[in-house]
């Protein structure tokens, strides 16, 4: 059974499952070069058909990770927080009727019908599919069920507690499911008004950042200036109900009402203090819900999805609960992952599906050698073909060069995982400043380490319980004293790091490079950050990688077995 999953909205994307296993997944931003591309994923769908060779007639189902496609590009906070549209008013109004719920209620169903009624996007989606000759029946899957399916069916846990949380979708902002024997059952849901994602959007906006793109900066800032008073103030606005397993917007404030009230309450606090308070509130609430749900169900393996779980420090706190043995976060936890989640849900209900584990998430496009060679000839670069680039990459690390890596199929999800990665050595204490400046970024957390799997336990505490999640850089760990001594530049102010582990079987290209680097230096790790400049998507085509080399983002580029150096100092634009 072939299921095409599609997301037509923020961070649009596509996925193809064959008999329940992903054979392709990518998001439109990589091809359009528009960060978090909003709209129908024409280019990603074209690449899916080209890469997989599947014909439209071979697609048995199309799935969509929303029942009521009501996302708008300026919702909830993109440009002006006071600009509440008519659609937003309807959306908020249907959610305002609802208090915390423990089961799908008539009010929830009514709100979804209203949202579906006002949606104009379904016909547009069908038209987009017809342009590619795809006329297969479309199944619209509840947004949070899509998130839940993405987490459960890729967790490898036969029995799991599944938690979703985000800004909102289909009238909900979070849910609790049980996954047992391949079947998902809803345990609790909380409506759109009680949204941890919107709480985080508001805090990000108040701190002066783009709330959709820069929520991660708040997590980084939170470690700088602890402030219990900021936490106390924010706790008056947000909490959780342990009986109904629900995040609580205590004052039921939305949009500009919430913004004005929070901004007034937080006057006099620095953004570092606000970030601390917000992070602690998020941990208090979501960790509290997870603890209570685990106690109630007896399920000790947790599978998580939804944009809230992009917060790696929150994920660490959940991992450290006494009630939890192991966690997994779907690698594309945000809305860009609901194309896969909806496809998994449809597959499970049609033919049955047992949870499985990812060996890797290199599901995107690849580039043949002829295209690489044609591309390189167009630019002022010096090219050398290598039999095996691993030792050359290690030598560049020893020389403290910043390396661009472009190899194999593109990663699925928001993280660079060694295939479209900037790699650097891990001991320079000034790197966070000068490399961020070079990449035109403003970050408050050190660059993440990429490490040989066999060495990770001596660098990170409690590593075994988060081993699977660490393949995809979705959880923090406390760094051991040995790790702090050997690689201080990976350690955040709170003593944590967010690693990606690699092994010979699934990440051979970068694994061998790190093995050579370890042989030369004794260090089994490097610094890994995404191969892109600020506000740009991760590179997709070899020309994107070469352009970054010429702009000065990296000192040297390795594209498959080609070592590439610039013949010019810098290229503008």
Descriptive overview:
The chain is α/β, with parallel strands linked by helices. Among the domains are: 155-329, ATPase, nucleotide binding domain (Nucleotidyltransferase, domain 5, 2-Layer Sandwich); 369-566, Carbamoyltransferase, C-terminal domain (DHBP synthase), CATH 3.90.870.20. It has 20 helices and 24 strands. Strand 13 (301-305), helix 12 (312-319) and strand 14 (326-329) form a beta-alpha-beta unit. The longest helix is centred in the middle third of the chain and has 27 residues, at 271-297. The two termini are 45 Å apart.
The coarse silhouette is: globular
What distance lies between the first and last C-alpha atoms, to the nearest angstrom?
Answer: 45 Å
Classify the secondary structure makeup into a structural class.
Answer: alpha/beta
**What's the β-strand tally?**
24
Low-confidence stretches: 73-104
CATH architecture of the domain at 369-566: Alpha-Beta Complex
The main sheet orders its strands as: 15-24-23-16-17-22-18-21
CATH superfamily of the domain at 369-566: Carbamoyltransferase, C-terminal domain
List the keywords.
573 residues; Nucleotidyltransferase, domain 5; 20 helices; globular; DHBP synthase; 20% strand
Question: How do the helices and strands line up, and which of them pair or pack?
Answer:
Blueprint: E1 2-7, E2 9-10, E3 13-18, E4 21-27, H1 29-32, E5 38-39, H2 42-52, E6 61-64, H3 86-96, H4 106-118, H5 121-130, E7 138-140, H6 143-152, E8 159-169, E9 172-180, E10 183-191, H7 196-206, H8 215-221, H9 228-235, E11 238-241, E12 246-249, H10 255-265, H11 271-297, E13 301-305, H12 312-319, E14 326-329, H13 338-351, H14 369-376, E15 381-385, H15 390-398, E16 403-406, E17 420-424, H16 431-438, E18 448-452, H17 467-470, E19 477-478, H18 481-486, E20 496-497, E21 500-502, H19 508-521, E22 525-530, H20 542-551, E23 556-559, E24 562-566
Parallel strand pairs: 1-6, 6-7, 8-13, 13-14, 16-23, 18-21
Antiparallel strand pairs: 1-3, 2-5, 3-4, 8-9, 9-10, 11-12, 15-24, 16-17, 17-22, 18-22, 19-20, 23-24
Helix pairs in contact: 3-4, 6-13, 7-11, 8-11, 9-11, 11-12, 15-19
